[in-house]
Specification:
Layout lengths: L7 H14 L4 E4 L5 E4 L2 E2 L6 H7 L7 E4 L5 E5 L7 H4 L5 H8 L2 E4 L10 E2 L5 H11 L14 H13 L4 H24 L6 H14 L3 E2 L4 E3 L19 E6 L1 E2 L8 E6 L6 H19 L7 H19 L6 H6 L27 H4 L26 E4 L2 E3 L2 H4 L2 H4 L8 H5 L6 E3 L2 E5 L4 E3 L8 H9 L1
């Protein structure tokens, strides 16, 4: 499967919708590539997400001007003939104009003013250039701290991107399909005494062969209790569980984000299976709560309550599930939020901070287990979210009386010690909100105990 590009009309329609939401002209920059360790050894370029959403192509150094009247102009650096020795022929501005269905002019014709709205790019070079152009400070990555005309642009982009159009949904489906193949490849490549890196390579090979990139740094680890583990040098032991949080990104920037856990030996032990089933029940309870009008905070709480119920069933916790959940028991083993928005970023719109993730009038809770929740909006058709509860034995939490507190009396540490072969389990899917409920875009990734074990046999 080679990923398909959206039609130019889809991007024209997005630009037209944005123009109707604007209060002043807006400038969206593509950004610059970043040097890796010296100027000519650079990370692969990927445009800023707001630009990519409206143009559909990563054009380094370019800027898109959108006017409330509906006009849109792309300003881009002309192709450098001297660079062709290294890059091969590059498209001219006229080529770009025909391809994108958009007026394209040389970058040096762009004129800035303080009245132009903008959003801060992530790289320092582009932020400095934009600040000088607009005669005001725009710090790199400062999208959560906007002022003036920039606030209105942020709100317009949020309104535009929260609910995905048909072209975006098609991209999300493709990302999920490629991600599914990567996870199956990882399951089939897992062997005791191999390194985590060998499984990662099998998974990422599927993504690259599909014309995609990884949407984020792949997490492939036997230490699933380290939530964002970025190391891949561990050796797979026969009794280990392997956690893989790996997702594909299409050339247009849309992301897949899926986590699965499987036994290195090919079969879950009795304790691993029991803990896995508890997390799976928690995830299913959360997915069942995803529907138009549902509050995402309630989806998060559905996952946490189901996890507590499951841990009571295993004997790890003692007491009433609602009472224990209200006292923060879920956070002992599931300290993060149940998920986040998914779209042209893997954590979609998070460059704009909680303005995007939290509905007006809502703010982050301070309670353990709730304070890291990235999203608290009422769900609407066209939104895409991840659902990713987990069970982790994190020493930083479980060994500190200040973290466990009064829940110590409800925690059976003897029963917990019998689950020593379960360091961390997370089960994550990409879920699209539909008119009547939801659709799991990543349904093709094996998830039940039986399906995971069967996939490994393949």
């Amino acid at each position: 499967m080679w990923t398909k590009a959206s039609d130019a009309a889809a991007f024209a329609a997005r630009r037209a919708r944005l123009s109707k939401l604007l209060q002043s002209p807006a400038l969206l920059v593509a950004g610059q590539s970043r040097p890796r360790n010296f100027q000519h050894n650079r990370f692969p370029f990927r445009a800023e997400s707001h630009f990519l959403y409206l143009v559909g192509r990563s054009i380094e150094g370019a800027a898109l001007l959108v006017d409330p009247s509906g006009d849109a102009t792309l300003f881009a650096p002309p192709a450098d003939p001297e660079a062709e020795l290294w890059t091969g022929p590059m498209p001219t501005l006229a080529d770009l104009s025909r391809e994108l269905g958009l007026e394209v002019r040389p970058l040096d014709e762009l004129r800035g003013s303080p009245e132009l709205a903008a959003l801060p790019p992530q790289d320092f070079e582009s932020a400095l250039w934009l600040s000088e152009l607009l005669e005001r400070d725009l710090e790199p990555g400062s999208g959560a701290e906007l002022e003036g005309v920039d606030v209105a642009l942020a709100e317009a982009m949020i309104a535009l991107r929260l609910r995905h159009d048909a072209a975006a949904i098609e991209q999300l489906r493709e990302a999920a399909q490629v991600t599914a193949r990567a996870h199956v490849a990882g399951m089939r490549a897992t062997r005791p005494h191999e390194r985590e890196a060998s499984v990662r390579s099998a998974m990422e090979a599927q993504i690259i062969a599909s014309g995609c990139n990884t949407a984020y740094g792949s997490i492939v680890t036997v230490h699933g209790e380290v939530l964002h583990n970025d190391r891949h040098d561990g050796v797979l032991g026969d009794a280990d569980l392997l956690l893989a949080d790996v997702g594909a990104e299409t050339p247009e920037g849309f992301a897949g984000d899926v986590t699965r856990v499987w036994p290195v030996s090919g079969r879950f032990s009795a304790t691993q299976r029991a803990a896995y089933e508890v997390v799976l029940a928690s995830q299913r309870a959360a997915i069942a709560a995803v529907a138009p009008g549902a509050r995402y905070l309630d989806v998060h709480r559905a996952a946490g309550l189901a996890l507590v119920e499951g841990l009571i069933g295993l004997g790890i916790l003692r007491g009433s599930a609602p009472d224990l959940y209200a006292r923060g028991a879920a956070a002992l083993f599931f300290p993060h939020g149940v998920g986040h928005l998914l779209g042209i970023d893997v954590h979609d719109l998070e460059d704009l901070g909680d303005r995007a993730g939290y509905a007006p009038g809502r703010s982050r809770a301070t309670a353990p287990g709730d304070r890291y929740l990235r999203l608290d909006r009422d769900l609407e058709p066209g939104m895409c979210v991840t659902i990713e509860p987990g069970f982790y034995q994190i020493a930083r939490i479980l060994s500190r009386p200040s973290e466990v507190g009064e829940l110590e009396s409800a925690l059976d540490r003897d029963k917990l010690s019998r689950f020593a072969d379960v360091r961390g389990i997370r089960i994550e899917d990409d879920v699209l909100v539909t008119l009547k409920g939801c659709e799991v875009l990543s349904e093709a990734v094996p998830k039940s105990v039986e399906d995971v074990q069967h996939a490994m046999l393949g």
